[in-house]
Design goal:
Keywords: Membrane, Transmembrane, Transmembrane helix. It comes from Serratia marcescens. This is AI-2E family transporter. The chain has one domain. With 78 residues, the chain is mainly alpha-helical.
């Protein structure tokens, strides 16, 4: 029921405004997700490097901290 050019123009501008708002929100969410992924990936690589580098030392440190006898530790972790 669009009777005049003014009504058509009004409807088109409303649709364009809603579409622009949706697009802006989507771009923000995509950027936020990308940033979170990059930060998480960086933390993962950092931890992976040091766990591979110092892994055996950290395992021995954890085993020494356990209040168990050597015999029990050997059966649990070997």
């Amino acid at each position: 029921n669009l009777n005049s050019a003014a009504e058509i123009q009004k409807q088109l501008s409303e649709v364009a405004l809603k579409g622009g708002q949706y697009l802006a929100g989507s771009v923000f969410l995509i950027g936020k997700g990308t940033f979170n992924f990059v930060v998480g990936f960086g933390v993962m690589l950092y931890l992976l490097f040091f766990l591979l580098k110092d892994g055996p030392y950290l395992v021995n440190l954890a085993l020494e901290a356990l209040p168990l006898s050597q015999h029990v530790k050997h059966h649990l972790f070997v």
